[in-house]
Amino acid sequence: MTAIEIGHIGTSGAQYQYRTCKFTGRRVERSAELLIRANAVAAVVFLAVGGLFGLLVALTRWPAVQLLPADWFYLVLTGHGANVLLFWIIFFEIALLYFASAVILGSRIATPKFAWLGFLLMIVGAVMANYAVLKGDSTVMFTSYPPMLAEHWFYLSLILFAVGALIGVIVFFATLVVAKAENTYNGSVPLVTFGAITAAIIAVFTLASGAIILVPTWLWSLGLISGIDTLMYKIVWWGMGHSSQQINVAAHISIWYAIAAMTVGAKPLSEKVSRFAFLMYILFLQLASAHHLLAEPGLSSAWKIVNTSYMMYLAVMASMIHGLTVPGAVEAAQRRNGYTRGWFEWLTKAPWGNPAFSGMFMSLVMFGFIGGITGVILGTEQLNVLMHNTIYVPGHFHGTVVAGTTLAFMAMTYIVVPLIFQRDIILPGLAKWQPYIFGLGAGGISLFMMGAGTLGVPRRHWDIAMTDAANAYEFSPAAYLMMGLNGISAIFAATGGLLFVLLIVGSVLFGRRLDVPGAKLNFPLHDDSKVVSQYGSEATFKLPGTVTLVTIFFLTFILYYFVNWKYLSEIWQFN
Amino acid sequence: MGKTDNDAQDNSDEPLAPADTPAMQRILDNPFLLLFIGVTMPTVLYLLWGVMEVASIPVAY
Amino acid sequence: MAINAPTNRLWWKEPIHSIELGWIIIAFLWGLFMFFFMIAWHFIGDQNLSTETYRITTDQFQEKVEAFADEYAVKDANGEAVEINGTPLVAPPVGGDVYILGRLWEWWPAIELKKGQSYRFHISSVDWQHGFSLQPVNINLSVHPGLEHVLTLTPTKAGEYGIVCNEFCGIGHHTMSGVIRVVE
Description:
The complex is a heterotrimer.
Chain A: H1 3-15, E1 18-20, E2 27-29, H2 30-61, H3 70-105, H4 112-135, H5 152-181, H6 191-221, H7 230-241, H8 243-264, H9 271-284, H10 301-308, H11 310-336, H12 345-348, H13 355-378, H14 392-421, H15 428-431, H16 434-454, H17 477-510, H18 544-569, E3 573-574
Antiparallel strand pairs in A: 1-2
Helix pairs in contact in A: 2-3, 2-4, 2-17, 3-4, 3-5, 3-6, 3-8, 4-5, 5-6, 6-7, 6-8, 6-9, 8-11, 8-13, 8-14, 9-11, 10-11, 11-13, 11-18, 13-14, 13-16, 13-18, 14-16, 14-17, 16-17
Chain B: H1 3-8, H2 23-28, H3 31-55
Chain C: H1 18-44, E1 53-55, H2 58-71, E2 83-84, E3 87-90, E4 97-103, E5 106-108, E6 110-114, E7 119-125, E8 130-135, E9 139-143, E10 147-154, E11 159-165, E12 177-183
Parallel strand pairs in C: 3-6, 4-7, 6-12
Antiparallel strand pairs in C: 1-10, 2-3, 4-5, 7-10, 8-9, 8-11, 11-12
């Protein structure tokens, strides 16, 4: 703002080590780069561990295979939840927060030493949690509902991890302050950074809820307090458990915008509309933690309805907005790129051979159609009773967290490796197929688990044949078929996941170096010089393809919504 | 075109005077204000209200 | 681009495109509909989960269930208590109270109901949390130790129904089962 502050940039440039990315022209500061690398590597390691556990779970739940004995099944299921729902996702999100603040704003990272402390705590927590689970004394599921008790290490490990992640979030906010003070950007922050701010805000509530409930639970496990109220625990725990998945939503939608920008040169249709949608997330998305409490005793319908509907579905409205504006921005950009024929040439001629783009677009479609619609159905007060704790619930959240978030994060990794690790993706012919294999598996897992759930199959259940039960209930053959198809889908997803881990680790270690003159990317980014930064008059762009897509989405939504009400109206009456 | 269009376009590199910025844009540009409301809303509507519900469950007759 | 600062620094003043505006309005109205439909179902629907709940100790609840099972136990011609695979069968009076407890690893006792009649169910656990999952109806409830959930259930079809547990409750979780028999 003043001459003095502009001079300050010079001094900071001397103190901090920057390079200019030759593909994007961005200033990348050294310690931000190292922190992003470390968090991304940790994320992929825990994805590999958690993914392996996931495959074992699915193969055990495939009735014809039933791979593991019961005790190992529950142990591995606990580990699967912790490693993928917390460690993979949150390590990647911390990397993303540093990317969206330091790299996108062209700033240095604030307090790198503090950030490394956070990273260290997260590593210690994640390793300790795996140790506690594998030791066998903490088979309490990811949710660890009291009065079932895990070993105290288990709770302590999650607390350490949460504190470490909170430090990462604080560093993110501090970096925003630094970037503003050092004038590294002009005007408002980019939309992707705004989405990251949304994710970080949700993360603060998430981690605070986690601390509020896990600290007393830890003290209880040490025998220092006498007990934990089971319902109180569930309320506060889900403030963490569900909100952590809302961090994902904000994060992966930011990634959709980022990948659309970097692969086809998309520009948000309207900054105002997209930011307003993120604001609705900030205000209301976290209320959906109540989705897990609709079948509980003792909570009033008023509390349930207000919270489960994210305050009159304003956060659902926000998701529907992003569901229009992301493909809309891609369509508008592709039409500018010259693909104007018919309604769908923009889509058919999109860079489907670039795993970043294909992963992003499949994430968008599957998150909307599979994760999004079923989330609203599950979150309807009365309809929830039809599916609560059946395997429909994991079906839903594999649609959001695996087909949605994980696929988007994988897609982003194909950009992060060249830009931040400065190594090119190896085996591009194979990398091209990875998102499809993984996406097919993830979509199948979600759909078949939901199918089994509508037939009553419980979640977290070793044996639906109920061998040795006094009054075993006989599930229909269709339920067995669904669980078998789920197992087959899991093999696809695991293959795609393994391929991802190998490709990324291989690229980081052995990929062609990109910090040499004249290096080219296997999966090129969109050439910015060809982008028209303005679409001209706002009134002229036409999006017939996107309008068709959202119309199909909306009709599917309405149809599925009322099918469920029809089914509910025909079952036993209860009130 | 004309007057309103001039109002709506600002591509310059000059610092933006706060007075020129719409109020809503200033709110969205303030991450700490957003942080405050984003934590307060679920804390009040979800956590506090929910905990009150649990605390008010009557003891069996 | 989304990774660059907005080119128009006064982006809030930009007009909204009609496609976006139309979609926002549709999404908003659909949200309102879904919100009010949940409320409306409390008045027009027959399936709304009761919120009537009491705090109770696990011992107290167990006593109540046992007293209930003794009082309404089904007896055969010889006066012997009827059991279904070792679980006593209890037939409460029409419109009366029904007590079911979840414990490691069974739903106890077995219940016989009359089709089309309403019963006041009292459900709780005496150890860990359980999931009351009535099949194949697919009604699923959370069950807590220390909380007695009271709800009215009206079976609409005769038949043999199973209760599965769908909240993880330890190594024998998959063997936790129960029976509700509905007669004409």
